[in-house]
Amino acid sequence: MVRPIPRAPPMLPDNESDYEDDGHDFAGDDGEDLDDEALVWQLLLLINPGDEDTALQQFARYREAREESGDEDEPVDTVREAIDWTSGFHVDWKDTPSFVDVIDQLAARWNLRIDWGVEDPSDEDFLDGVDVPELMAIAYDRLREHGYTLWNYDTGGDAYAGWIALRRDDENMKAVARGLGIDVQPANEAF
């Protein structure tokens, strides 16, 4: 069950339907597909489990950026800007130090520490000997042990991007991403 968009200040989408994942698409009670704004709200709730305040702040930034751009950018690009280093990551394909830093920061939100398999994950020899997809697979495995899933999505370029959500929300994540046209998969399967 996906949580409905709460009745809240005008910065939130105005939709009181109770949304359910039917296994294919997110739809309201009348069977109509949810609009991008409602799907973005659901995504922000998924990647900020138990932290609706952060989701609200990110949604406000998302809406402001969409208004400024005239809705020209893809929703995922605007979401990436709104969540970067708070609820998501976006790193260059070869930037292993930044990837370790951002994932450590994201995991710390739930008092988790990633065991990268070395005493000092900032060690240059370690970072030079791995690539971002290998690190994503390590982080994915460690987070799954604690009930979380590290996701990545196709950026269409030379970068890796994604977020963390509760493991129990895996099917909802797939459905929301599909509704937004985001090609997402678990981070142990890097794009």
From TrEMBL:
All copies of domain DUF6630, residue ranges: 40-186
Region annotated Disordered, chain positions: 1-32
Bias type Pro residues, positions: 1-12
Domain of life: Bacteria
Biased composition regions of type Acidic residues, renumbered to the chain: 15-32
Protein name: DUF6630 domain-containing protein
